[in-house]
Amino acid sequence: MSRALIVPFFIPHGGCPFVCVFCNQWQISGASAQDCPLKLQDRVQQYLRSVKELPLQREVAFFGGNFTGIEEELQISWLEEAAKAKAAGMINGIRLSTRPDYISDDILERLRKYGVTTIELGVQSMVDEVLIASRRGYKVSVVEEAAKKIREWGFELGFQLMPGLPGDSLDNALLTAQRTVMIRPDVVRIYPTVVLKGTTLARWYEEGKYRPWTLKEAVTIGAHWLGVFSLYGIKVIRMGLQASENLTVAKDLLAGPYQPAYGEMVKSFLMYEQVMLALKRIDKRGEVLEIICNPRDYSKVAGHKKSNLYRFKEECGFTDIELIKDEAVCAEDLKVSVGGETVEIKRQEFLEKYRISGV
User: Fold this and answer.
1) Is 122 helix (H, G, I), strand (E, B) or coil?
2) pTM above 0.90, yes or no
3) Nearest-angstrom CA–CA distance, 294 and 299
4) What angle do CA 11, 17, 23 make, to 5 degrees?
5) Alpha-carbon torsion 319, 324, 330, 331, what sign?
C-alpha cells in the first residue's frame, strides 16, 4: 500500500493576531492568497486522480495559519466541505494546525462535530525563555493545558517544533525534547529556524542581535530529537521546511540552516552515531571497515553525499569501507566488522542512549 496522501490547504496568517519574530507565512507556504473552501472537493479529486494506487490514509490538511482563530463562519465553511469529502469516502482524515492558546472545549467540540482527526500545535519550544524571546504570546503551561484538552477530546495530537529560535541553546533544546516526551504527542514535525526577509528576525540578524544556528548544529539537535522521540514511540513525520522556489537567498531566504535534504542528513547522522557505538565495542583495529545493513538503509549509512564514509576514514583511520546490503538484517539494525570481529547493534538497543532519566 502506498504512503499516506495529504491534500494541503494553506491559510497564510489566517486567524493569527500575532507576528512572531520568525514569521512570514507567505514565504514559508509559497502562497500569497487564501484557498477557497468551495474548491476543496475538486482539489481532493485531483489528488486522488494523480495516484496510481489509492492510499490507505487520505487526509485534508489545513496548514499555514491559526485555523481555530479564523472567523467561526469561515472555519465551518472549510470544515463542512472537508466533512462532505470524508462522508463521500474521498478522505478518511482531517488535520489542522493551530496555536496552543486557541484551544478550548467549545472549539474542540466544533472540530469533533465535523470529523477532525488530528490537531497539530505550533508549539515551537517548550522553554518559556525561548517563547518570550520569540514573541509567541503564551508560555509552556498553555501548551500543556491545550495538549491535555486535545487528548481528552480524543484527537491525535501533533507538535511542531523549531530549534534555534532566539534564546534557544543546546540545553534548552534538550529540555524541549524532555518536556515533549512527558506530554507524548503522537507525531512531531521539526523545522529548524531560518531567517526570512521581512521579519523581525531578519532585522535582528542584520543588526547582529541574532545568530542563526549552523546547519551542523541543526542536524546535531535534529538527530538527538529523532533519537529521543523514536525511543519513546513519538513519530517524526517531517524534518525541515518543504522545498519551495521562494526559499532561496535570491528570493526570501536571508540566513539560517535551510537545506532541502535536512531530513536525510539527520537520519544519516543518527546512523553515523550507531556505527560509532559499534566501533567502541570492537577492540581490534584494521584498515577495512565492513558495515552490513538492510538495503533500505544503505544511503543513510553512507550519509548525505557519502559524508559518513568520509568521516569514518578521517576520524577512525580506515582506508577502505565496504557497505554490504543484506535483506536478513532488519531495518535500522547494523552489523559492523573490523579485522574479523563483528558487532551487531540493533536500533532499539542504540536508542537507549537517548533515554531521559526519570521519564
Assistant:
1) strand
2) yes
3) 10
4) 65
5) positive
Q: Are 25 and 191 in contact (CB under 8 A)?
A: no
- Residue ranges of alpha helices (H) inside the chain are 25-29, 40-49, 72-87, 105-113, 128-133, 140-152, 170-183, 200-206, 215-231, 262-280, 298-302, 307-316, 347-351
Tens digit of pLDDT at every position of the chain (359 positions): 457 899 999 876 555 566 678 776 544 444 445 578 989 999 999 999 999 888 899 999 998 778 999 899 999 999 999 999 999 999 999 999 999 999 999 999 999 999 999 999 999 999 999 999 999 999 999 999 999 999 999 999 999 999 999 999 999 999 999 999 999 999 999 999 999 998 999 999 999 999 999 999 999 999 999 999 999 999 999 999 887 756 776 678 999 999 999 999 999 999 999 999 999 999 777 789 999 999 999 999 999 999 999 999 999 989 999 999 999 999 999 999 998 899 999 999 999 999 998 88
